[in-house]
Amino acid sequence: MKFCAPCLFGIEGLVSEELKENEFENVLAENGRVTFEGDVSSIARANICSRFSERILILLKSFKAITFEELFEEVNSIEWAEYLPKDAAFPVNGWSLNSELHSIPDCQKIIKKAIVKSLAKNYGISWFEETGANYPIRFSILKNQVSIMIDTSGEGLHKRGYRTKANAAPIKETLAAAMCKIARIRDYHTLYDPFCGSGTILIEGTMLANNIMPGIRRGFISEQWVSIDKSIWQDERSRALDLIKHNTDFIAYGSDIDKDAIELTHANANRFSVRNKLKLSVCDIKHFEPKSEKGTLICNPPYGERMMEQRQAREIYKTMGKIFEPKRGWSYNIISPDEEFEKIYGAKARKRRKLYNGMIKCTYYSYF
Hints:
Layout: E1 2-6, H1 12-21, E2 25-30, E3 33-37, H2 41-49, E4 57-64, H3 68-76, E5 92-97, H4 104-123, E6 137-142, E7 145-151, H5 173-182, E8 190-193, H6 200-209, H7 230-243, E9 251-256, H8 259-271, E10 278-282, E11 295-299, H9 307-323, E12 330-336, H10 341-345, E13 351-357, E14 360-367
Parallel strand pairs: 5-6, 8-9, 8-11, 9-10, 11-12
Antiparallel strand pairs: 1-3, 1-4, 2-3, 4-7, 6-7, 12-14, 13-14
């Protein structure tokens, strides 16, 4: 069985490494996604353990199509009855970019019609009530290359289950996890985030350091599928629990100028039972003080789209450049969309990496 794991641009390598660590086969990184192979139990393992992917999709077929006739015939040729039971609900959604078939509603209609025709041939009926489990059909069309997939995740994998509320400018959980991985967080490290907001970086860093799988406490749409035995999900959750590192030396210090943000971080950390690893305080960046001899600082400082906000953000960058003292055993990792960041911060980064925060193109600067 072939799968596809869409991801944020710039972290395909991290997704590939993660999939290989979880014993998947034929892992191949592409732009914005990674493909791999496995059996039906892979659906459970990939969803529970994928820290950086956005979803886990079954990749049914890839082909070129420039007409609706070609799209219909290719989709209809898939043996849909092998995947969809008679009562399955199968909504169709997707996107198209730089392709002849650019009308999303028309593509949805054609794909739906082709699936119905295939199922009708196998089940001997022409109308499907779609009252059973949900099997969301996803399509992507890039430069006339079509991929047809079934979504096994449901809600995006960035939704771990701990963040029911967020502050005004939250960072996505998958991006925060990637930032922690790139900064090489280990189970003996001390993590700092002086702009912790709702605590996403702190919590993702704690989960990574202690090997807590991100999907261990949430559900997935494919858990309702009759083709996947409930015991598979039980076995994979038990495996994930066994992999957790207990009694590590890891600790995370979080601070924010906003008292409400600290309370929000407290609440989110409690939902994932990592509160005991966090030490939180209300503090302005100007008064940041390390609590340990060594540390790994990872942050997403404020930045503004309006001129006044941008000036304020740049003042914060200047302050950071003064107080983040270069010294042995320390690294400072900062994400920002400001192309003038290094100049304002006052030092060239040792490493830079292009990442996307939502649709915002950013650079991840590492100082050590």
